[in-house]
Design a protein that fits this description.
Distance between the termini: 30 Å
Number of helices: 5
Order of helices and strands: EEEEEHEEEHEEEHEHH
Oligomer: single chain
Strand content: 35-45%
Radius of gyration: 19 Å
CATH architecture of one domain: Beta Barrel
Strand order of the largest sheet: 1-2-5-4-3-6
CATH class of one domain: Mainly Beta
Helix content: 10-25%
Largest sheet: 6 strands, antiparallel, barrel
CATH topology of one domain: Elongation Factor Tu (Ef-tu), domain 3
């Protein structure tokens, strides 16, 4: 489990491609003081397992499924990556719950400066957007960020100077892919409620619609009966 607070920006030293998989060698410094073989490390938001550990880096396997689902297959030698070790129990929880199991990728659609901040617009499909809410949390390449705007095509976040300088996001260009992980709570609630969704906007009919899973849909009545409203 991770928090989305990036500890270090590392770089890709070596890529050994397999038939459908790959092995990444990543150069790092700060995080290596207590990393052991078998530890989980989030690389651009993707949870990988350290199979070899050196004083200045580590090596990790990337299976075919991970390459299909993420942007790790886009990495090049010398490319910069966001790194975070698994969180420690009892430590400060500065971001949000991040599993390192991404939901898919989005495309950087626009970058716009506003005073000391930079707005980043990410376009992605409805399968991901359904779990994104304004003022909710999203992990972009492993960075815990707050959603400032969302519609049926894209969402936007705004980066403060510290986040911009300590992560790789603003080194990206329009058209680049980024890894996205939605708030894990939304996905579990939907699954446990039978896969349904509910219209809770003013004037909504609160009828609920089936999301494809077996069981009853989530309705306003269900929420009321279980003390959520």
């Amino acid at each position: 489990m991770f928090t989305g607070i990036i500890e270090e920006v590392g770089s890709i030293e070596k890529i050994v491609p397999g038939t459908k998989s790959a092995v990444l060698s990543i150069k790092a410094d700060t995080i290596m003081n207590d990393v052991r073989i078998g530890d989980s490390i989030a690389v651009n938001g993707v949870c990988l397992t350290a199979r070899e550990v050196r004083s200045k880096g580590f090596t990790a396997d990337v299976m075919a499924e991970t390459l299909r689902r993420s942007s790790l297959g886009d990495l090049k030698i010398g490319g910069r990556v966001n790194l975070e070790r698994a969180m420690l129990m009892g430590g400060r929880f500065g971001g949000h719950i991040v599993s390192g199991h991404i939901d898919g990728t989005g495309i950087i659609d626009n970058l716009k400066r506003e005073d000391n901040a930079v707005w980043v617009t990410i376009a992605c499909d409805g399968r991901i957007l359904r779990y994104i809410v304004e003022k909710g949390s999203i992990a972009i390449d492993g960075i815990s960020l707050t959603v400032a705007y969302v519609d049926d095509r894209c969402f936007k976040v705004s980066l403060i100077p510290h986040t911009a300088s300590e992560t790789t996001l603003l080194s990206k260009r329009v058209g680049d892919r980024v890894n996205l992980e939605c708030d894990i709570l939304a996905k579990y609630i939907e699954k446990l409620a039978g896969g349904g969704t509910v219209d809770v906007t003013p004037g909504g009919d609160a009828s609920g619609t089936s999301g494809g899973a077996a069981g009853t849909s989530l309705t306003m009545e269900t929420l009321l009966e279980n003390g959520f409203m």
